[in-house]
Structures are given as structure tokens and as C-alpha cells.
User: Fold this.
Amino acid sequence: MYKVNIRTIKNTEKFIQMVESSRGHVFLQLPNEMLCDLKQNTEALQMLRMISPGELWLDLFLTDLQDSYNFMAYMVGAGA
Assistant:
């Protein structure tokens, strides 16, 4: 798996679309160290819409290498 650290989401809808269209799984590491599959858990995606960008500190684990490139491009462009 490929780990990606997310510190800001400027365009939440674009971020969620990227998660949903990912080729592999996108796991969010929860505070208790468990992994939540964002592609399968719509409630977790809804919670992302309510999080203030300043409070954000997400650790994601991706199962497909191509998805890691897409997430890195998103972060470099700050979700524009």
C-alpha cells in the first residue's frame, strides 16, 4: 500500500470524486489505527464534507500506484 498524508482539502467535492473514481481502495486510518475504506463507507465521505480544513490531518493508504500519482497531483494543485 502507498501512504499519502492529506493536510488540506480546498475542494471537498473534487477530493470525494477522486476517491470514488480511484482504481484501487482508498483507506483512511482512524485514530484507533483501524482502516476505513472510503470507497465503501459513504458516511465517512459525508463527514469529510463537514470537517474544517484547519482541523484536517488525514493519513490515507492507497492500494493502486496510479491512484497515488493522482492524489499527489491533487495536493500539489491544492485541489484547484
